[in-house]
Amino acid sequence: MNQRFVAELPLGHKFYLIPELARDQDHQCLYCQLRIEVRNPVNFGKPHVATIDHLLPKSRHGGNERSNLAAACMRCNNLRGSIDRFLFKAAVIQLFRKRPDIVVLWHDEDFTRTEVWREVVQLFHRLRIRDNQRYRAIQSSS
Ligand SMILES: [Zn+2]
């Protein structure tokens, strides 16, 4: 077994790392490319707040090294889960291209209470299933 445990990033570490990652990306989410903001007492919990994203997800043995970390908005980070980062980004870009109405809603706090949100959740649910199947196929062939 090459299973290894990836520890949570310590809170103090996140405190300086998030602003650094956000600055390196010109305050753009890695996926949706919309503006992200470093957490402050006012924006706490909002969809546009910058979070640490593991390029290779922890669940797929990605580590906490700087080269495996990027800044993503909370919305994208939550939706992505363990979906392959390239696949996820392509899906977001494609979605935005087809549905400009969704771009406007993406960082809206009330987005999750709309009908459109349900479509988005279903879309990414299907993508997650496909990605899991693909991942298992790669694992079993190596
Ligand atoms: Zn985003």
What is the mean predicted local confidence, pLDDT? 92
Tally the helices: 5
Ligand inventory reads:
zinc ion
Structural class: mainly alpha
Number of domains: 1
Give the N-to-C terminal Cα separation.
13 Å
Integer-rounded radius of gyration? 16 Å
**Roughly what percent helix?**
40-55%
Unreliable residue runs: none
- Main β-sheet description: 2 strands, antiparallel
How many β strands by DSSP? Answer: 2
**Proportion of beta-strand residues:** 5-15%
Shape descriptor:
globular
**How are helices and strands ordered from N to C?**
HEEHHHH
Q: If strands are numbered along the chain, what order do they take across the biggest sheet? A: 1-2
What can you see in these coordinates?
This protein has 142 residues and is mostly helical. The protein has one domain. It is built from five helices and two strands, in the order αββαααα. It has a two-stranded antiparallel sheet with strand order 1-2. It is globular, with a radius of gyration of 16 Å. The protein starts with 10 loop residues before the first helix and ends with a helix. Zinc ion binds next to β2 and α2.
Describe this structure in a few short sentences.
This protein is mostly helical. Helices cover 48% and strands 7% of the residues.
